Every structure is written in C-alpha cells, then in structure tokens.
C-alpha cells in the first residue's frame, strides 16, 4: 500500500504545482490586459490560448462585470485556491494514511 500512497503524494504535489502555475498565468494575463499588449506577440498569444478556455467558460456561466471590469480571473483564482486547499490537501492526507 505504501507504493500507492507515494503515488498519491507525488500526484498531489504535481497537481499543486500545475495549479500554481496556471494561477500565475491567469494573473499575468489579467495584468497584461491593463496595458493593451500586442496581440501578435507569441507570449501574449500563448497566455490567451492557455487561459481563454477557462475564463470564457466562467464568463458564460457567471456573467459578472462590475463597471466594465471583468471579474472572471478573480473567480478562477479563487477556484484554484479552493482546489489547492481542498483537493491537494485531501490527496496528501490520504497518501500519508496509506504509507
């Protein structure tokens, strides 16, 4: 059982790292939207392609715009923090109990 516990611990750490990385991508995208970057820049195109599916899904489900300010990045960041505090910690606790 310790092998499965180690697998779950590794999975939880990789998931935590992936969620943190995606959170930083959303933050960078939100900050860049304030300065109107060049849409043909490869970095801007990568940020748009990687964050648009989630942000558009949130915008369709919960249309929140407060005075012209898009709050979907904040909702995505809150969801990521929730997943990190609930899912990752639950996986780690389960992994430690199996070891």
Q: How is this structure best described in words?
A:
The mean pLDDT is 92. The radius of gyration is 17 Å and the shape is elongated. It has 99 residues and is mainly α. It has one domain (2-98). It has three helices and two strands. Helices cover 79% and strands 4% of the residues. The longest helix has 31 residues, at 2-32. It has helices spanning 2-32, 42-61, 72-98; strands spanning 65-66, 69-70.
Strand and helix map with partners:
Elements: H1 2-32, H2 42-61, E1 65-66, E2 69-70, H3 72-98
Antiparallel strand pairs: 1-2
Helix pairs in contact: 1-2, 1-3, 2-3
Features:
3 helices; two-stranded antiparallel ribbon; single chain; mainly alpha; 99 residues
Tell me the Rg in angstroms: 17 Å
Which structural class best describes the helix and strand composition? mainly alpha
Strand order of the largest sheet: 1-2
Count of DSSP strands:
2
Anisotropy-based shape: elongated
Instruction: Count every helix, treating DSSP H or I runs of 4 or more residues as helices.
Output: 3
Whole-number average pLDDT? 92
State the helicity in percent bands. Answer: over 70%
Q: How far apart, in Å, are the first and last alpha carbons?
A: 7 Å
Low-confidence stretches: none
């Amino acid at each position: 059982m310790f092998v499965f516990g180690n697998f779950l611990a590794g999975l939880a750490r990789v998931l935590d790292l992936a969620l943190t990385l995606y959170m930083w991508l959303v933050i960078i995208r939100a900050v860049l939207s304030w300065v109107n970057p060049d849409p043909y820049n490869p970095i801007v195109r990568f940020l748009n392609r990687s964050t648009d599916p989630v942000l558009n899904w949130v915008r369709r489900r919960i249309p929140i715009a407060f005075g012209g300010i898009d709050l979907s990045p904040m909702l995505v960041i809150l969801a990521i923090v929730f997943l990190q505090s609930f899912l990752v910690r639950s996986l780690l606790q389960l992994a430690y109990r199996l070891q």
